[in-house]
Amino acid sequence: MFLAAVGLYGVVAYLVSGRTREIGIRIALEAHPEDVARTVLAQGMRPVFMGVPIGLGGALAGSRILNTLLYQIDPWDPITFAGSAVVLLAVAALACLLPARRASRTSPTEAMSAE
């Protein structure tokens, strides 16, 4: 989980750093910082929202194999599957929130003079 969070943070931070000039222009044109942060957060969470259902499907398919290895434990426990999905979404949102906050605090003058 930690490795996934660090990887997602790194990708989103890299995308934000590549778009610093665009974000600075948006803020200079009076875009609200909340809108900038929401845009960055949505772009970072898009792969997570696509990956969670795929991962849950893979986990459900893989639990058939584990069924023979488990003793007195249900491999299709809905609480475990839902809980892991919720925890993954929360960790991913936190990993995307840090670069989103930094993007929303971008100064237009610093963004334009960065290049």
Which H/E pattern describes the elements?
A: HHHHH
Flag low-confidence runs.
none
CA-based gyration radius: 19 Å
Number of strands: 0
Give a verbal description of the structure.
It is a single chain. The protein has 115 residues and is mostly helical. The protein contains 5 helices and no strands. Helix 1 (2-18) packs parallel to helix 4. The radius of gyration is 19 Å and the shape is elongated. 17% of the residues are buried.
Tell me the layout of helices and strands.
Elements: H1 2-18, H2 20-28, H3 33-66, H4 78-104, H5 108-113
Helix pairs in contact: 1-4, 3-4
In short:
The protein has 115 residues and is an all-alpha fold.
Describe the structure using short key phrases.
mainly alpha; 115 residues; 5 helices; 0% strand; single chain
